[in-house]
Specification:
3-stranded antiparallel β-sheet, alpha+beta, single chain, 2 domains, about 50% helix, two-stranded antiparallel sheet, elongated, about 15% strand
Length: about 270
């Protein structure tokens, strides 16, 4: 337990004023004055005071704004380069285990969005960067956009779209939440150029989800697959693993026909 002397010392440390030589401005005031001197309003005032034409001043300001935007963009890319030098290794930390139709056990690991985002954002912050997401809906699609912004103002973004994940008996709200969850993860990985450790497709072709592609199955295709999964009575978890996805809504359109083959075969077999 702290004694009175310790409490007094901490209070004094928190409330110690910056010692500034007589005639000098404190650090915070110097920084504020520097910003004011470079502000567009101050530049315009100085130029007009020296008899410069207003049109010329406006063109000067436009050049200044473009120059600052370019400098901010360069700062962003330098920061991202430093980020990638020290990028965290995204590990598959979430385990999924289930029993197959034949009584065997299948298990696999995948990267958890919460853990991944925390590790990525920690290193982004070290480089003056931050990430956020925004979502929108339209044409039966949910679009998630990941935005990474540098402290100097430049930002870049990437988007992915997919239908609501109605697999596994989810209600409408759960389906939307599931899709947003996965799209947030994939957009963050895509924009930072990272991928979970060990993620590959054994030469089966790259996954468009991880390359910034919006080419997921359509809402109608998702509805068809969901209906056939239910009709075929196939083990849904095993089926998803065979397709290399965690939910039907994140299935690439290029794998749609492949997904139909075992479903149609099972339905045909069940009718015999």
């Amino acid at each position: 337990m702290e004694n009175v002397e310790d409490k007094i010392e901490k209070f004094e440390q928190r409330n110690t004023l910056e010692v500034v030589p007589l005639g000098e401005d404190p650090k915070w005031l110097k920084e504020m004055k520097e910003k004011e001197q470079n502000s567009p309003a101050n530049i315009m005032r100085i130029a007009l005071t020296h008899g410069q034409d207003l049109d010329k001043v406006e063109k000067m300001l436009e050049l200044q704004i473009k120059w600052e935007a370019n400098e901010a963009k360069k700062a962003y890319h330098l920061a991202m380069a430093e980020f990638k030098k020290n990028a965290p290794t995204i590990k598959r930390t979430k385990k999924v285990t289930y029993t197959t139709d034949k009584g065997g056990t299948t298990e696999y690991w995948h990267a958890d969005l919460g853990v991944s985002a925390e590790e990525i954002n920690k290193e982004l912050a070290n480089q003056g960067l931050s990430s956020t997401w925004k979502t929108s809906q339209g044409d039966a699609k949910i679009t998630v956009t990941c935005i990474i912004t540098h402290k100097h103002g430049h930002s870049e973004e990437t988007s992915l779209s997919a239908g609501a994940d109605n697999s596994g008996g989810k209600n409408a709200i759960q389906g939307i939440g599931s899709t947003i969850f996965y799209l947030e993860r994939y957009t963050l990985f895509a924009l930072t150029g990272l991928a979970p450790h060990g993620m590959d497709d054994d030469g089966k072709g790259s996954d468009p989800q991880l390359e910034g592609s919006n080419d997921f199955i359509s809402e109608a295709q998702l509805k068809t697959l969901t209906g056939k999964v239910k009709e075929s009575k196939i083990n849904e978890k095993a089926f998803l693993v065979s397709l290399g996805v965690e939910t039907l809504s994140e299935l690439p359109a290029s794998k749609y026909n492949k997904a139909l083959i075992p479903l149609n075969a099972r339905i045909k077999q069940n009718k015999k």
